[in-house]
Amino acid sequence: MNTIEIPLPDGGVAEAYVARPNGDSREHSGVVLYMDAIGLRPRIAEMAQRIAVWGYVVLAPNVFHREGSIDDLAPTTDLTEPGEREKFFELAMPRVHRLTADQAESDIPAYLEALRGLPGVTPGAAGTTGYCMGARLAVRTANLDPDVVAVGGFHGGGLVTDGDDSPHLGLARARAAFVFGHADNDRSNGPEAIATLGEALRDAGLAASNEVYAGAAHGYTMADTPMYDEDATERHFSELKGLLARTL
Predict the structure, then answer these.
(1) Count of CB atoms within 10 A of residue 187's CB?
(2) Residues 27-60: pLDDT tens digits?
(3) What is the pTM (predicted TM-score) of this model?
(4) Smaller CB count within 10 Å for the chain: N or C?
């Protein structure tokens, strides 16, 4: 695992983790991993490396680069302790809201260019997976680039909104296969939104799985928080691995 810097169209720079298959010097397909609202930290590095071991080069960008560096924004307390996750989100959620669709869609092509330009990355087709707010960034990535052939979205929020820039409205431009693993009883992604997302995927003629993980809370993959659900996390890894194997 190493960290690189990605130059961006607005003159800024985004740090990113890069994970590679251990001891394998062959070329591999690339995958962009979009972090949750907590940001880049050891848990995201662990997840990126687990995906890399399957045979991919994984790039996880600091999508909050306008707010500060990885070190500036990382949690400084144990989020599994009572009240600490909630306290951290008092700082994190304003960052989420300040990252506009226009900003994200300006940054995404630079993330893909950086991934495809890494040594050992097979040119062309790529995949992406995202968590929490990162799930909607993963969808936007496929909407922007037809060579993104695989999208995973897990415990995502804001996938369907009333705005003209809602991620689901761009699915007609996508050419990817999708796997969604939604959190159960998620206030940021309720049953009506999940149904609307499913309709948009069908209308676009896209291969997709759009399932709720029963009993799994929002944030279920994040082992450094109290929301972690081991069974749901392992299910997500299994379904993501299958998606990437079918498409990349």
Answers:
(1) 8
(2) 999 999 999 999 999 999 999 999 999 999 999 9
(3) 0.97
(4) N
Buried b (16+ CB within 10 A) or exposed e, 192-217: ebbeebbebbeebebebebebbeebb
Question: Which residues lie closer than 8 Å to 24 by C-beta, 6 or more apart?
Answer: 55
Query: How many residues comprise the chain?
Result: 248
Domain at 176, CATH number: 3.40.50.1820
Locate all alpha helices (DSSP H) within 34-123, ordered by sequence.
42-53, 70-73, 84-98, 101-116
Instruction: Name the CA radius of gyration of the chain, rounded.
Output: 17
Please name which of 187, 196, 98, 95 lies closest in space to residue 139, comparing C-alpha atoms: 196
The token pair that represents 1 in the structure block: 């695992």
Which residues are bridge partners to 7 per DSSP?
13
Domain hosting residue 172, numbered range: 2-247
Tokens of 155: 């415990």
- Work out how many domains the chain is built from and give that number: 1
